[in-house]
């Protein structure tokens, strides 16, 4: 007794299935590469820009301290502490 598959469907090689999907995607125009940047990556990029500005400011402050021209305004510091609730 011989048992045959219903509807005589032949199995497809899985690698061939992948090739067929790629060919269909190309035919539909979906074969183009695309780049998406996450919000986290954008924030990191912005923080790198501010890091350069921060380094410049730190260099200015170091120079003022070494020259003796750096003066702390106690009133400004006290107001900032009060705003933060410290």
Automatic annotation (TrEMBL):
Record's keyword annotation contains Nucleus: no
Domain of life: Bacteria
Any Gene Ontology biological process: bacterial-type flagellum organization
Residue stretches making up the Anti-sigma-28 factor FlgM C-terminal domain: 33-82
Record region (Disordered): 1-22
TM annotation in the entry: none
UniProt keyword list: Bacterial flagellum biogenesis, Repressor, Transcription, Transcription regulation
Pfam hit, one: FlgM
Family: Belongs to the FlgM family.
Protein name as annotated: Negative regulator of flagellin synthesis
Species per Swiss-Prot/TrEMBL record: Aneurinibacillus danicus
């Amino acid at each position: 007794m011989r048992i045959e598959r219903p509807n005589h469907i032949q199995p497809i090689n899985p690698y061939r299935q992948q090739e067929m999907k790629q060919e269909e995607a190309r035919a539909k125009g979906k074969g183009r590469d695309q780049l998406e940047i996450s919000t986290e990556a954008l924030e990191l990029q912005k923080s790198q820009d501010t890091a350069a500005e921060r380094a410049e400011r730190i260099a200015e402050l170091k120079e003022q301290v070494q020259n003796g021209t750096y003066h702390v305004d106690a009133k400004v510091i006290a107001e900032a502490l009060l705003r933060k609730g410290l």
